[in-house]
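Cast an eye over this sequence plus tokens and walk me through the fold:

***
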Amino acid sequence: MDKNSTHNQDERYAKVSSLYTACFLFTKGFELVNVDKLSDKRKAIFMFVNSLELELALRNFNFSKEDSSEVLVDPRKFITAIKQLKNALYQDTF
């Protein structure tokens, strides 16, 4: 596989290392495709299908005001996302 096709493949996925950022995206309905567990068992990379909408959601999550409607989520859905992603970390579900 040549360098360009590897680069294009990597652009198809957004990689997030923060559990809570990943939970936010998951709660917003973005598709989680993989959880890459790193050699340091306390860390992982969450991989989502990349899109303009996802990039906008990430920008809003990182830079919007706390009470901005773009970053508000249902707390129950967020708690469910935390449980599901932690479960994925501790088991081989991806």
Q: What stands out?
A: The first helix runs from residue 3 to 11. Residues 1-7 have pLDDT under 50 and may be disordered.
